[in-house]
Write a structure and sequence with these properties.
The complex is a heterodimer of chains A (about 200) and B (about 425).
Chain A lengths: L2 H34 L5 H5 L3 E4 L8 E6 L2 E7 L2 H9 L34 E5 L10 E2 L6 E3 L2 E3 L2 E2 L6 E2 L5 E3 L11 E5 L2 E4 L1
Antiparallel strand pairs in A: 1-12, 2-3, 3-4, 5-8, 6-7, 8-9, 9-10, 11-12
Chain B lengths: L12 H9 L2 H10 L2 E3 L8 H20 L9 H10 L4 H28 L8 H23 L4 H12 L8 H9 L6 H32 L15 E3 L3 H23 L29 H9 L3 H21 L11 H20 L23 H26 L9 H9 L10
Antiparallel strand pairs in B: 1-2
Classes of the chains: A alpha+beta (about 200), B mainly alpha (about 425).
Bound molecules: protoporphyrin IX containing FE and FE2/S2 (inorganic) cluster.
The site of protoporphyrin IX containing FE has 26 residues of chain B, from helix 3, helix 5, helix 6 and helix 9.
């Protein structure tokens, strides 16, 4: 093969590769809107926050509200539930992180870090099992506080058997994380805004 | 398609004119009517034709259902009830479509186990097999999205659990589920896009079926002996022999299908799906449709989220590697005495996996009673774990080793030889005329 031919082959190769590369970038750019259209749209993003009055929620009672299409549990805990949660050693937890959107990511999952503003009586968390998203059932499971025949606090997920304690922390089963705590703030002593 | 040795002769002037412009009748003659087919195919070879008919039925019933269905969270459930009550013959069309999906899966499972028993995935049919596995994957995706459309409780929670599988992916998991949902939960954008894709994918399947048949026609059919075709005497033209045999099997299968549609249309479904979706309450017991149960059992067998998801997808993707995991050169299980036993064990294992996926994980196996957590008990979960281990053992250990250790029975010299030996043992080695 002569050197001239050789050089020519190389130049062609370069042109092929350069053309191909430019084409590939073009295709990727054109594909992006077709993928990105699937992300949440403006109307979904607009449904950002809800306000809830906690006064009617009696001690030992739990309400479920809907926020961004998902259930949020708001539980007015008994003293026994709070105490049970605070007694657990951090080393016994499957997920040692607080998972509290109002705190830094690295904060540990102590009983106190699972609420906002030190109001430990009100536990506010996503009712979405961190395994595959089912809604756990309240006052159930091995980590509830038992008084006679009744269970207080604790959650059991009917789908694949995850068990959460009285602070909504994962203790047993396939779920990897504690129930998430959404961003929320106290507007007054008994009123919160989620989102 | 290969081997265009068709004898097609256009008979009329119009046929000749057309043939010179589009030789499609030539292809029909060569690839359908005259296609040389092993003469010893049994009824397990009729399921390909049955599957083609089922795909067609799903497309036809689906397109007419779509004329009355509304893909919106506020209206989907009611529009399906409207199909059931108001639309002329709507109840029948919907029951045909819903049960048709189950029949489609019965047929595909028989078709796949057929391939596994007779070694139809081995050289030179690896690509044919892999296209088949791809078809199966897309079928599963299609049926999954279809099941979401009636927007009942099981539709919603099935969708939520399955899409959440992707949240197990490290780092990108949450962005992927948000992208799939178009929001922060399964909601209207999700339903709408599932409808769009549920309409699209069956046509993708139809395209893949064409590739599947193309690949089949390059290498030819396998057959119950697993011995390759050696001469023209081993084959017969596809028509009329197999067109009639397939048609007969299709009619019998359609009778079986009709029995479900007309006598037990809801048996394979879940009563709770007649309750409208409620994003705030998970039903006490959620289970997927029967055809996903073995994989659901595998998902639940692993106590770790990412691990369960990997095992579940792995159990399907491993089928792509099957042609290389089975080290035996002998195709048909008829000539592999030990493989044959392991094959049936594998089938039974898959069925038990199905049962393991159907109950609450901590109940005693095949019972509605919760097991005592402090004592050893044979629970749904434990059975699922044992069978999951065996499932992977079959592919990763048993098949590779069997090919090396087992002594196969002597193979017949040809398909014709095997056929003659069966009908008249004394003429086994007299060459056919
Ligand atoms: C591979 C073929 C297909 C399979 C396996 C399949 C499967 C399913 C399943 C399992 C359901 C839920 C049935 C129920 O419980 O009510 C469904 C619903 C539906 N499918 Fe399909 N389908 C297929 C093709 C199609 C096609 C081509 C269309 C055309 C648009 C379609 C339109 C619909 C509609 C409108 C519904 C909602 C009505 C209903 O729930 O009965 N399907 N499909
Ligand atoms: S979704 Fe809760 S345990 Fe699986």
């Amino acid at each position: 093969m002569s050197t001239a031919e050789h050089a020519e082959t190389n130049r062609r190769d370069f042109l092929y590769i350069a053309t191909g590369a430019v084409g590939a970038v073009g295709v990727a750019l054109a594909a992006w809107p077709f993928i990105n259209q699937m992300n949440p749209d403006a109307s979904v993003l607009a449904l950002a926050s809800v306000e809830i009055d906690l006064a009617p929620v009696a001690e030992g009672q739990e309400i479920t509200i809907k926020w961004r299409g998902n259930p949020v549990f708001i539980r007015h805990r008994l003293a026994a539930e709070i105490e049970a949660a605070s007694k657990v050693a951090l080393t016994d937890l499957k997920d040692p992180l607080a998972r509290n959107a109002n705190l830094p990511d690295a904060d540990p999952a102590t009983g106190e870090n699972r609420v906002v503003g030190g109001k430990e009586q009100f536990l506010v968390m996503m009712g979405v099992c961190t395994h595959l998203g089912c809604v756990p059932i309240g006052n159930e499971g091995e980590f509830a506080v038992v008084e006679g025949n009744t269970k207080h606090g604790g959650w059991f997920c009917p789908c694949h058997g995850s068990q959460y304690d009285t602070a909504g922390r994962i203790r047993k089963g396939p779920a990897p994380e504690n129930l998430h705590i959404p961003q929320y703030a106290y507007l007054s002593d008994t009123k919160i805004r989620i989102g | 398609m290969s081997g265009h040795a068709s004898n097609y002769q256009p008979k009329s002037a119009f046929a000749k004119w057309f043939h010179e412009r589009l030789p499609i009748m030539d292809m029909v003659q060569g690839q359908v009517l005259d296609f040389p087919t092993p003469k010893n195919l049994n009824y397990f070879w009729t399921f390909g034709g049955i599957l083609a008919v089922m795909l067609l039925i799903q497309i036809v019933t689906g397109v007419v259902l779509a004329m009355h269905y509304t893909p919106h969270v506020d209206m989907a459930f009611d529009s399906v009830e409207h199909i059931m009550r108001d639309v002329n013959s709507g109840w029948m069309l919907r029951y045909m479509h819903a049960n048709g999906a189950s029949m489609f899966f019965i047929a595909v499972y028989i078709h796949m186990f057929r391939g596994m028993y007779y070694g139809s995935y081995k050289a030179p049919r690896e690509v044919l097999w892999m296209i088949g596995v791809l078809i199966y994957l897309i079928m599963m995706a299609t049926a999954f999205m279809g099941y979401v459309l009636p927007w009942g409780q099981m539709s919603f929670w099935g969708a939520k659990v399955i899409t959440n599988l992707f949240s197990a992916i490290p780092f990108f998991g949450d962005s992927i589920t948000t992208l799939l949902w178009g929001g922060y939960s399964v909601d209207n954008p999700t339903l709408n896009r599932f409808f769009s894709l549920h309409y699209l994918l069956p046509f993708v399947l139809a395209g893949l079926v064409i590739l599947h048949i193309w690949a089949l026609h390059v290498v030819g059919n396998n057959n119950p002996t697993g011995v390759s075709v050696k001469s023209a005497q081993d084959t017969i033209p596809f028509s009329p022999y197999y067109t009639v045999k397939d048609a007969f099997a299709i009619v019998v299968f359609l009778m079986f299908y009709a029995a479900w549609v007309f006598f037990s249309p809801n048996y394979l479904g879940h009563a709770i799906n007649y309750q409208e979706a409620n994003p705030l309450v998970t039903p006490a017991h959620i289970v997927p449709e029967w055809y996903y149960l073995p994989f659901y059992a595998i998902l639940r067998a692993i106590p770790d989220k990412l691990g369960g998801v990997i095992a579940m997808f792995g159990s399907i993707l491993i089928l792509f590697a099957l042609p290389w995991l089975d080290t035996s050169k002998v195709r048909s299980g008829n000539y592999r005495p030990i493989f044959k036993q392991f094959f049936w064990l594998f089938v039974i294992n898959c069925i038990i996996l199905g049962f393991a996926g159907s109950g609450a994980p901590d109940n005693y196996f095949l019972s509605h009673e919760a097991a005592n957590p402090d004592k050893w008990a044979l629970t749904y979960k434990l059975v699922g774990q044992i069978c999951t281990a065996y499932y992977f053992l079959h592919f990763l250990v048993i098949l590779p080793l069997l090919g090396l250790l087992e002594t196969p029975k002597p193979l017949p010299a040809s398909i014709s030889d095997a056929v003659l030996a069966r009908s008249n043992p004394s003429t086994a080695h007299v060459p056919a005329e």
